[in-house]
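Thread: "does anyone have the structure for this chain?"

Original post by V.I.:
We have the sequence but no experimental structure in hand. Need at least a predicted one for the grant figures.
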Amino acid sequence: MNAALIAGLRAQCGGPRDGALLRFSLGNALLDQGDHTAAAEELRRALSFDPSYSAAWKLLGKACLADGDTAGATEAWRQGIAVAQQRGDKQAEKEMSVFLRRIEKSDG
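Reply from O.Q.:
Generated one for you, tokens below.
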């Protein structure tokens, strides 16, 4: 089922519906499938469409962490927290702050 969803989303990339939401959805599906590297790439594309998409920053951090890129996850969540603060997205800010503290605690 997930493979069909991913294929359907990829088919829309580059077309008139291409944008942050499409790339976010594709990144989310790829992350669910376990393709962390491709998920991170799509989430970065989502953010290139809309850098203020706090949910994409949050998921990018998760994809990076799952891919073993702790520095990438840390950077994504720091940027995501800043974006969430600017937008007043308290829930996303809170979640990314918790994720960031966990990384900092495990590094320290």
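V.I.: this helps a lot. The first helix runs from residue 2 to 12.
O.Q.: and The mean pLDDT is 96.
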